[in-house]
Recover the amino acids of this structure.
């Protein structure tokens, strides 16, 4: 089997699993997860083979694995689709395969496989728990198995297909196909528990908000296709001539070059998919979905796909740039990214839901990557994309494990507390040690804990790049965001795991089964080790021990290999300070928070806390700015006023007028004149006949008299007419 | 066998009429027999059109399976039929949807015989429009299809509902809808008939192939006016007739009424095929006969198309009646067809135009599949609940999981999800129109966004949310017959979405040869 064949095959097992589960295995829970996990394993295997081949190939950037077939006839030629693995997609494939496999495995435990059926569970609502009685006759409430277990595995299978399709695509159109299939799965899985009104609202919000970005992206694709006649990566992004033409021709819109305008249109797609400001509002609500979904779709893969795309189109964004200067398109990207990174980090500080903190953290970290691309830090963006996928998946799965442990406690005690609210937790490190240690590693990686964690190396590289190229505004913004990141991460760890349990439920929390903890451990390894691939060569003491392989590898994706940045102590120092300082501050403020206590920030600055807790009121603003007017336009303006009122009104008026004209014709023309004339003739003849009937007496004498008179009368007439001229 | 292969197209056209005659001899009380014979008989035209499809040579220039015979020699009108890639696609769509629609109408209980006979006559009328190559016969078939549809809506339409017209006067909704449908279309046809007669008198023939070459070249004066003026007037006469049928905004308000009040199968055919007659008219007659006028007025047509896309989507979002929501979605989707046609008219002969037309024709086929599927699914739930009000449903997914899955699938095809059919055609239209009508295409994206809004609104109100306990025990799962109706449509939706080349190649070649 050639390597190209394997690449073609990678996306197929999960979609096959989807169809098999939907059609045949939807009543068999064990078979469902065997199919899904087996499919994920096959895809993983294929991905690893491809990845291994890729890193062993010399000059891989110039000679990537490609294969394509004609797909769409258009005019005299065919639009070809195919697969391509170049350094960027090989690296993406690596983390995608790992995270997907881990999350598939985790889902088995998460959905309580092996537990009894719930007492009152029904499809569309999370399982409520089952009552069992043990050998001693005591009854306990324990977690119950998810009623739509098979459906979950079918959906995530379809999702994995979408993600793999996106990664192995060699063109923007099939990338878009994978992109949207993931959008559908995201919609279906956010609303997995569709019986909850909040989940139902969140699923629609997610789909529509990302669709705002998608329609712009579609325009960008159409524009690119008509401008170049192709959508193939190599033919556009790896061709100096094409890039030069696109970069120097004006689009006639706001002074942007064609490349810049296309790049920005496509970038709006990323803004939607990767939840960047101003389209970030859907991601926090997406936490309504089951936690594996949040980990896979809303942290590790789908939202990363947005960043993957923007890294992919980097040559377009930067086309036509003078050396060192940013194009206007890049400036926009850098601004959106940096702003989002800081903006989302501030919100994360004031959230109490363990998953929502992570959701805002994801938005913020994605902003980091987008900002990195905006300032031209191509490799750093890709590096952070990969490390983030690992540690954020780890954190989400860890939070799912925590929630699971808490739910166990809630069921056990029968308390009515929110198992996701961190203020109800505390002291879980003793109850759930594996979860604690892995979460700690993930949290430190997110904070950029120096030297040890992957997050440090990738984040440091972005900061160094921003500083080294003199983008001070971006540098300061991102450094501030990093400080906040470390702070809210430590706040989360402290509230959840440290101190003493703040509720009875937290006291009875229990470590989760191996299917959930094993993925945590594996991901934790990557959360540390993934960073070693990209240690800068000139880093003091440890630089150069492991060669900076990553930079060379990813950099070769581009036509013009980006140069590694020279080492500078200032950004490194800043990295150290913000990470350690933020962590320490988070611990200091939140350690030993007593039961029922107010959040210390709320106590210190209640007004600011309120604004942050309400996410700067973006939901409310969008609701009155977009949602309500749109409803009014559709329900009142279009349906009632325009269609039913004006257009139908005109039609009815025409009908009415025709009716009236008809009525007039009938009343004043037909009835009196046309009918009247006819009637008059008939009626007149009748009357006349009736009138002269009296002379028809039947007596001969009368007739004779009549004849006599007539003759006399005619004689007189004749006389006058003839002789009296 | 020779007879079969020599007269394949004629047979395809008239077997429905023959089927109607056969049904006439079955006693009215034998409802079961009538239903099943109707279904089996409707498979014959399908078989014929499949034979046409596989016997068709896409790379051959001109029309195929042509037949010509004298019909009305005194005015030079002849029975001339033939198909190219565009009409063949439509013939396939028609003959495919008719058996499914008949299968979907097994629930009809009153006057089954008349119903089925009317259905076959309707099929013949539609097929006639797609295959004839004579302008006068085109008109005959064009009008012929109206009559059965009128009765289908009027007699078998929904029984409930009233519609207020003016001054507080009310009339039964189905009477209103059928009347509006009939009168509106007839009003449009009036100009069409006059224009056709004028062309026939001036050119001395009604044969389309001859007219395609002669009519556009005609110069000088006619009836004391310059040819340009006469052609412009005739152009608009054609356009209005077809625009009403498509329907293009603002001629669309007959559609939500007619679709909503028609019986399920009627809506399937109405949305699936009847609307395509208008778009087909644009492709077959307006573009070839009026290349200059079409280019001149393309901007106006494109504007109306964009209005249809946007306001169709908005209006659909604003509905609380599930069937009306789906009905308005047709306005939205057909807007893309017209946008593609307008763009192609403007930049005729370019690659962009070619792609836009490919998209338009494929969108006609795709919309036929998805709209028919959606109307059918609305019908399935209506038959069980006797309500179409979205607010009466809610959280039905646990009771009807299979139906729910099918509904989501079909909705996604209608939404234009990549991987399913609608995306391919919408993308091609957008891609083709972008360089030609950049601003219009950009504005149309607002409509595309709201396509998502109304589709999700439908799903939300029917399937998701807290379960409306009222339906527990009353609502039954979709049955085998109904699954059999929808599965062929779903297979095609997926197939075209994944591998569009089998149909698009035929369309692409036809478009390339024509324009």
């Amino acid at each position: 089997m050639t390597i190209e064949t394997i690449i073609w095959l990678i996306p197929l097992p999960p979609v096959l699993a989807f169809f098999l589960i939907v059609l045949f295995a939807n009543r068999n829970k064990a078979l469902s997860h065997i199919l899904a996990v087996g499919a994920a394993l096959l895809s993983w295997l294929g991905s690893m083979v491809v990845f291994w081949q890729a890193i062993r190939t010399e000059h891989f950037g110039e000679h990537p694995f490609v294969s394509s077939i004609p797909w769409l006839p258009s005019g005299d030629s065919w639009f070809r689709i195919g697969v391509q693995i170049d350094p960027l997609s090989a690296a993406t494939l690596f983390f995608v395969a790992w995270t997907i496999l881990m999350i598939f495995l985790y889902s088995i435990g998460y959905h309580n496989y092996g537990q009894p059926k719930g007492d009152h569970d029904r499809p569309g609502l999370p399982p409520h728990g089952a009552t069992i009685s043990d050998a001693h006759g005591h009854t306990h409430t324990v977690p119950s198995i998810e009623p739509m277990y098979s459906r979950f595995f079918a959906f995530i299978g379809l999702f994995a297909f979408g993600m793999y399709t996106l990664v192995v695509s060699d063109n923007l159109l099939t990338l878009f196909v994978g992109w949207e299939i993931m959008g559908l799965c995201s919609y279906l899985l956010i609303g997995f528990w569709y019986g909850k009104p909040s989940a139902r609202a969140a699923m629609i919000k997610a789909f529509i908000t990302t669709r705002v970005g998608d329609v712009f992206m579609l325009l960008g694709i159409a524009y690119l296709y008509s401008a170049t006649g192709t959508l193939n990566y190599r033919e556009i992004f790896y061709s100096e001539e094409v890039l030069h033409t696109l970069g120097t021709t004006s689009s006639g819109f706001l002074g942007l070059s064609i490349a810049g305008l296309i790049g920005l249109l496509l970038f709006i797609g990323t803004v939607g998919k990767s939840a960047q400001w101003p389209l970030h509002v859907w991601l926090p609500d997406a936490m309504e979905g089951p936690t594996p979904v949040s980990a896979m779709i809303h942290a590790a893969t789908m939202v990363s796909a947005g960043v993957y795309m923007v890294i992919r189109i980097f040559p377009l964004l930067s086309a036509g740039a003078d050396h060192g200067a940013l194009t206007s398109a890049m400036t926009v990207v850098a601004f959106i990214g940096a702003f989002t990174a800081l903006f989302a980090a501030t919100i994360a500080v004031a959230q109490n839901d363990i998953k929502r903190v992570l959701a805002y953290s994801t938005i913020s970290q994605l902003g980091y990557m987008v900002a990195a691309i905006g300032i031209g830090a191509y490799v750093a963006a890709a590096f952070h994309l990969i490390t983030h996928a690992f540690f954020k998946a780890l954190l989400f799965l860890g939070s799912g494990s925590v929630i699971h442990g808490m739910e166990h406690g809630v069921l056990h005690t029968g308390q009515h507390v929110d198992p996701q609210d961190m203020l109800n937790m505390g002291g879980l490190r003793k109850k759930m040690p594996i979860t604690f240690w892995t979460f700690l590693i993930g949290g430190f990686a997110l904070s950029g804990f120096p030297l040890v964690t992957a997050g440090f190396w990738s984040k440091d590289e972005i900061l160094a790049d921003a500083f080294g190229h003199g983008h001070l505004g971006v540098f300061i913004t991102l450094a501030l965001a990093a400080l906040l990141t470390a702070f809210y991460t430590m706040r989360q760890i402290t509230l959840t795991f440290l101190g003493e349990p703040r509720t009875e439920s937290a006291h009875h929390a229990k470590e989760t089964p191996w299917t959930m903890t094993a993925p945590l451990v594996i991901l934790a390894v990557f959360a540390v080790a993934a960073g070693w691939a990209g240690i800068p060569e000139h880093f003091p003491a440890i630089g150069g021990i492991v060669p900076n392989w990553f930079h060379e590898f990813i950099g070769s994706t581009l036509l013009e290999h980006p140069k590694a940045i020279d080492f500078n102590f200032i950004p490194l120092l800043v990295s150290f300070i913000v990470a350690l300082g933020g962590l320490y501050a988070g611990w200091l403020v939140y350690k030993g928070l007593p039961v029922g206590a107010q959040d210390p920030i709320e106590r210190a600055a209640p007004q600011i806390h309120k604004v942050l807790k309400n996410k700067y009121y973006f939901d409310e603003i969008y609701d009155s700015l977009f949602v309500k007017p749109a409803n009014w336009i559709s329900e009142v303006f279009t349906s009632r006023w325009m269609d039913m009122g004006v257009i139908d009104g005109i039609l009815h008026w025409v009908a009415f007028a025709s009716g009236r004209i008809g009525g007039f014709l009938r009343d004043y023309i037909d009835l009196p004149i046309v009918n009247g004339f006819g009637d008059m003739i008939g009626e007149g003849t009748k009357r006349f006949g009736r009138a002269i009937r009296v002379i028809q007496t039947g007596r001969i004498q009368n007739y004779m008299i009549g004849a006599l008179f007539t003759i006399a009368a005619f004689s007189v007439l004749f006389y006058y007419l003839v002789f009296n001229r | 066998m020779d007879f079969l292969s020599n007269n394949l197209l004629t047979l395809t056209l008239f077997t429905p009429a023959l089927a109607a005659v056969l049904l006439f001899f079955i006693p009215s009380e034998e409802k079961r027999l009538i239903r099943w014979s109707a279904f089996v008989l409707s498979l014959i035209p399908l078989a014929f059109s499949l034979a046409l499809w596989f016997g068709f040579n896409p790379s051959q220039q001109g029309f195929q399976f042509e037949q010509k015979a004298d019909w009305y020699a005194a005015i030079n009108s002849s029975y001339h039929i033939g198909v190219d890639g565009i009409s063949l696609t439509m013939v396939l769509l028609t003959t495919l949807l008719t058996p499914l629609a008949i299968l979907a109408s097994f629930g009809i209980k009153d006057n089954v015989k008349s119903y089925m006979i009317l259905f076959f006559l309707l099929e013949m009328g539609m097929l006639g429009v797609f295959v004839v190559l004579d302008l006068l016969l085109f008109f005959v078939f064009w009008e012929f299809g109206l009559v059965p549809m009128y009765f289908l809506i009027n007699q078998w339409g929904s029984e409930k509902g009233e519609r207020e017209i003016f001054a507080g006067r009310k009339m039964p909704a189905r009477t209103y809808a059928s009347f509006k449908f009939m009168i509106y279309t007839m009003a449009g046809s009036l100009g069409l008939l006059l224009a056709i007669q004028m062309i026939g008198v001036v050119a001395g023939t009604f044969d389309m192939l001859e007219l395609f070459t002669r009519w556009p070249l005609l110069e000088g004066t006619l009836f004391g006016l310059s040819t340009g003026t006469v052609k412009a007037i005739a152009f608009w006469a054609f356009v209005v007739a077809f625009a009403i049928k498509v329907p293009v905004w603002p001629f669309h308000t007959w559609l939500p009424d007619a679709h909503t009040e028609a019986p399920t199968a009627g809506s399937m055919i109405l949305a699936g095929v009847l609307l395509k007659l208008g778009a087909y008219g644009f492709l077959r007659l307006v573009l070839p006969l009026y290349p200059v006028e079409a280019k001149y007025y393309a901007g106006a047509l494109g504007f109306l198309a964009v209005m249809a896309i946007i306001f169709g989507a908005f209006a659909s979002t604003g509905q609380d009646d599930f069937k009306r929501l789906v009905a308005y979605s047709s306005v939205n989707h057909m807007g893309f067809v017209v946008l593609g046609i307008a763009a192609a008219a403007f930049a005729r002969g370019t690659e962009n135009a070619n792609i836009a037309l490919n998209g338009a024709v494929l969108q006609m086929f795709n919309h036929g599949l998805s709209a028919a599927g959606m109307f059918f699914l609305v019908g399935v739930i209506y038959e069980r609940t006797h309500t179409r009000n979205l607010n009466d449903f809610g959280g039905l997914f646990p009771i009807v999981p299979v139906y729910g899955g099918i509904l989501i699938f079909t909705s996604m095809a209608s939404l234009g999800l990549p991987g399913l059919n609608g995306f391919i055609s919408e993308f091609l239209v957008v891609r083709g129109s972008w360089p030609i009508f950049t601003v219009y295409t950009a504005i149309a994206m607002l409509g595309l966004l709201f396509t998502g809004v109304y589709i999700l609104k439908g799903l939300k109100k029917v399937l998701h949310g807290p379960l409306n306990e009222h339906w527990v025990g009353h609502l039954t799962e979709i049955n085998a017959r109904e699954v059999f109706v929808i599965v062929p449509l779903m297979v095609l939706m997926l197939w075209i979405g994944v591998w569009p080349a089998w149909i698009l190649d035929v369309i692409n070649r036809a478009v390339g040869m024509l324009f």
About this structure: Residues 297-515 of chain B form one domain. Chain B touches chain A through 65 residues (CB under 8 Å). Residues 152 and 505 of chain B are 36 Å apart (CA to CA). The first helix of chain B runs from residue 2 to 6.
